[in-house]
Amino acid sequence: GKAGSTRRSPAESKPIAFRPDAAQPFDDRCLSWQIDARTVSIWTVTGRLKSLTFTASADQITLLSAYRKGESDLVCRDGMWFLMATCDLPDRPVTVPDGFLGVDLGIANIATTSTGTRHCGKGLNAVRHRNRELRRRLQAKQTKSAKRLLKRRRRKEARFAANTNHVIAKQIVTEAERTGQGIALEDLQGIRDRVRLRKPQRVTLHSWSFHQLGSFIAYKAARNGVALIHIDPAYTSQQCSACGHVDKKNRPDQETFLCTSCGFAEHADVNAARNIASRGVAGWAVSHAA
């Protein structure tokens, strides 16, 4: 706001402060890695701390040795210290795909592929519902201890969601790589606006990071040389993957697809994933036409 305004005055009078648990960035001049010895050396305001031991998996050590580059961040979470390094991995050349593996994202199942694989259904939804109810009870208490617990719960839920998305993305990319296919993924832009759901389902939709899952699939696909294409998902849930007929009545309920034209029946998510796969093939042909 302008000088002296009701918005600017409080902001200017408030002292600049940093969170005690905020990430502390270090470049290579202030933090050096001795990867073979699994130690680091860090410059601090009281001098250099040498030979600080760190732990990492064998795969992480391999990545650090070959690809670590740039800034490292030191973070304290729940009394434990984590050192986060940036690794710049080269992408493999994209293999010309032999067809596409379609991936439909949804509520009952986070992801469903055109081969019929459904990732994380009722079990995951039960965990999400339990976390949501616990959050609601803690928010209602409005005590300091409840707020501290709520903060820890949020971080735990974020880690759970990220780990689940990593696992799903890895399984999808592995299947595509094994079968020599590319991956067709629906364009996630506006997914929360275009999907019409009942209130309980809307809460579930907004509580999951589909964009994070999409980005995990994208970078894992690039790392493994798997082709990736995004398609317009319009009417993929209403279109028959057998004959192409589009009709709202093709969906008698949430899980079932039953074509009113040819009688084809399939799980609704699998049918949508097959439509996405077909559009992936068509889109790739257009974008890579000679």
From TrEMBL:
Domain Probable transposase IS891/IS1136/IS1341 per the UniProt entry, residue ranges: 92-179
Pfam families in the record: Cas12f1-like_TNB, OrfB_IS605
GO biological process entries: DNA recombination; transposition
Record domain Cas12f1-like TNB: where: 210-276
Alphabetized GO MF terms: DNA binding
Matches recorded under InterPro entries: Cas12f1-like_TNB (IPR010095), RNA-guided_DNA_endo/Transpos (IPR051399), Transposase (IPR001959)
Entry keyword set: DNA recombination, DNA-binding, Transposition
Keyword Cell inner membrane on entry: no
UniProt KW DNA-binding keyword: yes
PANTHER family for the chain: RNA-GUIDED DNA ENDONUCLEASE RV2885C-RELATED, TRANSPOSASE
Family statement: In the N-terminal section; belongs to the transposase 2 family. In the C-terminal section; belongs to the transposase 35 family.
Protein known as: Transposase
Originating organism: Nonomuraea mesophila
